Amino acid sequence: MDRAFKALADDTRRRLLDLLRERGGQTLGELCRDIDMTRQSVTQHLAVLEAANLIGTVRRGREKLHYLNPVPLHEIQERWIDKFERPRLSALGAVKRRAEEAMTGKPTFVYVTYIESTPEKVWDALTDADLTATYWGHSNVSDWRPGSRWEHVRTDGSGIADVVGTVVTRDRPHRLVTTWAAPDEEDRPDRHSRVTFEIQPHGDIVRLTVTHEDLADEGARAEVATGWPAVLSNLKSLLETGSPLPQEPWQVPGR
């Protein structure tokens, strides 16, 4: 949290966060167009924001895309704001998000977490049917070859898949891209969203970045903004302790 406050103390860095709030997934070149300084200076500011976990980055080809990461800001909000002003600020936040959606098109959600593990173990935790069943409540079933179908299958023995999609990119153990759709909308590509898992090692830890884009609307974004942190917290617990959390985190009631 100290790094977050230091990063937020600079006007240029706040401006960069505003630009990413307005439109996520911008490249360095796009951000430089709105900041009156050299590319090197902007790069240094972005590095400070990334070190503070205030932004996440995703590689797409030769481009590096930047996204606002809401986790540190949410932690600040929970500690100093939620107890006192949550109802009024929630209403204002809903208005702001609707305005942002109108400006930027389909919403995107980005989540970054750090796990004491290896890239291979994180990859397996995302793709192995038995492991996903342990911490997700569903089994991710596929051969994980580009172009193959994948299914998010319930673990109650019914065989029902609540999510289906296609494997777009497979670069084990670094990057996995899949489409997501409801089974009854599988033949409607315009209704599909897209999830990218970026696995970056650093010593004995791994940074896992999940980018869920092309969401249908702000309601869908609100759902994944609740679901992904719960699922990934369970994954982190499994890899670091050998067991998922003692209670299913997605069952925790909202305030």
Q: What's the structural blueprint in terms of helices and strands?
A:
Blueprint: H1 2-8, H2 11-22, H3 28-32, H4 39-51, E1 55-60, E2 63-68, H5 71-80, H6 82-104, E3 109-115, H7 119-127, H8 129-136, E4 138-141, E5 149-154, E6 161-171, E7 175-180, E8 193-202, E9 205-213, H9 218-241
Antiparallel strand pairs: 1-2, 3-9, 4-5, 5-6, 6-7, 7-8, 8-9
Helix pairs in contact: 1-4, 8-9
Question: How would you portray this structure in words?
Answer:
- The protein has 9 helices and 9 strands.
- It is α+β, with helices and mostly antiparallel strands and 255 residues long.
- α1 (2-8) packs antiparallel against α4 (39-51).
- It starts with a helix and ends in a 14-residue tail after the last helix.
Record keyword descriptors for this entry.
seven-stranded antiparallel sheet; 255 residues; two-stranded antiparallel ribbon; single chain; 44% helix; alpha+beta; globular; 9 helices
Helix content: 40-55%
| Main β-sheet description | 7 strands, antiparallel
Low-confidence stretches: none
Number of strands: 9
Secondary-structure-derived class = alpha+beta
Radius of gyration of CA atoms, rounded to a whole number: 19 Å
- Tell me the span between the first and last alpha carbons: 23 Å
Order of strands, widest sheet: 3-9-8-7-6-5-4
Shape: globular
The percent range for strand residues is: 25-35%
Q: Helical segment tally?
A: 9
What is the string of SSEs from the N terminus onward? HHHHEEHHEHHEEEEEEH
Q: Mean of residue pLDDT?
A: 88
